[in-house]
Design a protein that fits this description.
Layout: E1 2-6, E2 12-16, H1 19-42, H2 49-85, H3 104-131, H4 140-155, H5 160-170, H6 179-188
Antiparallel strand pairs: 1-2
Helix pairs in contact: 1-2, 2-3, 4-5
């Protein structure tokens, strides 16, 4: 993790922060809250200016920096999950981890990119379904499964183990289809990747 702390003259500087430093900073926040309660309860003023100033700075930073970034990460993760559930695979490698050292505008940019990826994916699938109406019988995940079965069938010597699942998926459209018909059809066409994996 990285966080921004205030320098001597109030200018911001990036400081690397380890897990232990983060835990230490959280302990400082808790300690500050305890001191604040003690001051409020005893109605006395204690002079902890340097210690309190550091804790206030950290507390404001955590609230103003980390929390919005976590919220944005949740939105991005939701879009990534929807993209995956709709069959998208290629772009899942992009922005798999997002460093908290990025600023808020970079998080917004990543969020907008995922909006675009998701919209583009939905558009691409809709266009393919319009172009090839038989695809409407299957989810994209079913299509990916069929593609993988067909590729495995063509690449492996032991083909019989792939015919059962193929017949099962294809018989959804035509329950009278036979294993022999599917095997003949597969041999007569060249199977190309439907989507890149």
């Amino acid at each position: 993790l990285r966080h921004v702390s205030l320098g001597e003259e109030g200018d911001e500087k990036n400081v690397p922060q380890s897990r232990d430093d983060t835990i230490g900073d959280l302990i400082k926040i808790i300690h500050f809250e305890m001191i604040k309660e003690k001051v409020l309860n005893d109605k006395k003023i204690y002079i902890y200016s340097l210690h309190i100033q550091n804790c206030i700075s950290l507390r404001v930073h955590v609230k103003n920096d980390f929390i919005p970034k976590f919220d944005k990460c949740k939105k991005i993760a939701k879009k990534r999950l929807e993209y995956f559930s709709l069959g998208g695979r290629d772009d899942l490698k992009v922005d798999r981890t997002i460093s908290f050292s990025k600023n808020a505008s970079e998080f917004d940019m990543i969020d907008k990119q995922w909006d675009k990826r998701l919209t583009d994916w939905k558009t691409q699938i809709a266009e393919l379904r319009n172009k090839f109406p038989m695809l409407s019988y299957y989810t994209v995940n079913d299509m990916l499964f069929l593609r993988d079965l067909l590729l495995s069938y063509n690449q492996r010597a032991e083909k019989a183990q792939f015919l059962g699942p193929l017949v099962s998926k294809i018989s959804f459209i035509d329950p009278n289809v036979t294993t022999t018909e599917i095997e003949t059809a597969i041999k007569s066409i060249k199977v190309a990747p439907f989507f890149s994996s």
